[in-house]
Amino acid sequence: MHASSRPSAGLEIERSTPPMEARLVDHLPEGEGWQYEPKWDGFRCLAFRDKGDVALMSRSGKPLERYFPEVAAALRDLPESRFVVDGELVVPVEGVLSFAALQARLHPAASRIAKLARQTPAQFILFDCLQVRGRVHRDAPLAERRAALEQFAGALPESIFLSPATDRVETARAWLAQTGGALDGVIAKRRDEPYRPGERAMFKHKVQRTADCVVGGFRTDKTGCGIASLLLGLYDEAGLLHQVGYSSSFAAAARMEMFDRLAPLEGASAFTGKAPGGASRWTKPGKSTAWTPLEPRLVAEVAYDQVTGDRFRHGTTFRRWRPDKAPSQCTFDQLAAELRPEELVEILAQVPG
């Protein structure tokens, strides 16, 4: 018996324990001794159960069970009465994983949370364990933890399921290729390493996604003669151009060059759908929200990580101008949509390896 698998009379893992973190890498590590898993796009969560007491703890150590009562109830109904497992909370809505629906759960009104739990129930995807079946596995190698988790996952309801895993890098690459960008990326872990709370002891390779967008406007920098950000748009099926995000962080020389390129295109607003707004509660005091509209003639290729609703969740990275692309080709159907977790699991299971 491994020393970390000693019997436990209760929960030896404190609720204040932070999850193991990942370090971003450009390429997946290869060689013997690696395990690869899908990178899910949700809320990271450590789930604790000690008989009737269930706690869902966020990455920052905040309790989440009041926001996801249906997940807490499902964990409370499992045959095992004591465990600590690591996973991801997700909310599928109409066939896709909705980060906006996930964020909507963080609401102060219990009645609102209860309604959302009924309308769009959350799911919990398991990928590691610190304590299960009465034994502590935190310091055990991943190979042992995974075996314990698979045994634990033998009797799970539909709302809780085991994330796939493989020891073949070819299979991990095939996951990304066959899911059409539906995965957020792949996590790589050493099979001989223990669980290291709070440390960046695993690696994540994120999917590189790009989109061609209409440049519908810009904001200038403090000099007034350089571009601080490009305002990006995509056309919907009705032909309306909606602002979907921005691209910024340009070098000084690029700011000037972009200004010279864009200034001749100043005109009426190209955004015929959702347009850039004014200040919000997140706007820094004193920061100008003024923007200059442009004729919809330039197309920029940008790299992005995630889409929430109909917008890029974060700022995008400018790649290049696309003079070969017509603005009318910049439509929403470029954006990678995520599948339901159970559909992804089915796809991943079909990949050899």
From TrEMBL:
<dbReference type="GO" id="GO:0005524">
    <property type="term" value="F:ATP binding"/>
</dbReference>
<dbReference type="Pfam" id="PF01068">
    <property type="entry name" value="DNA_ligase_A_M"/>
</dbReference>
<dbReference type="InterPro" id="IPR044119">
    <property type="entry name" value="Adenylation_LigC-like"/>
</dbReference>
<dbReference type="InterPro" id="IPR012340">
    <property type="entry name" value="NA-bd_OB-fold"/>
</dbReference>
<keyword id="KW-0436">Ligase</keyword>
<dbReference type="InterPro" id="IPR012309">
    <property type="entry name" value="DNA_ligase_ATP-dep_C"/>
</dbReference>
<feature type="domain" description="ATP-dependent DNA ligase family profile">
    <location>
        <begin position="31"/>
        <end position="206"/>
    </location>
</feature>
<dbReference type="GO" id="GO:0003910">
    <property type="term" value="F:DNA ligase (ATP) activity"/>
</dbReference>
<protein>
    <recommendedName>
        <fullName>DNA ligase (ATP)</fullName>
        <ecNumber>6.5.1.1</ecNumber>
    </recommendedName>
</protein>
<comment type="similarity">
    <text>Belongs to the ATP-dependent DNA ligase family.</text>
</comment>
<dbReference type="GO" id="GO:0006281">
    <property type="term" value="P:DNA repair"/>
</dbReference>
<dbReference type="GO" id="GO:0006310">
    <property type="term" value="P:DNA recombination"/>
</dbReference>
<dbReference type="InterPro" id="IPR012310">
    <property type="entry name" value="DNA_ligase_ATP-dep_cent"/>
</dbReference>
<feature type="domain" description="DNA ligase ATP-dependent C-terminal">
    <location>
        <begin position="226"/>
        <end position="325"/>
    </location>
</feature>
<dbReference type="InterPro" id="IPR044117">
    <property type="entry name" value="OBF_LigC-like"/>
</dbReference>
<dbReference type="InterPro" id="IPR050191">
    <property type="entry name" value="ATP-dep_DNA_ligase"/>
</dbReference>
<dbReference type="Pfam" id="PF04679">
    <property type="entry name" value="DNA_ligase_A_C"/>
</dbReference>
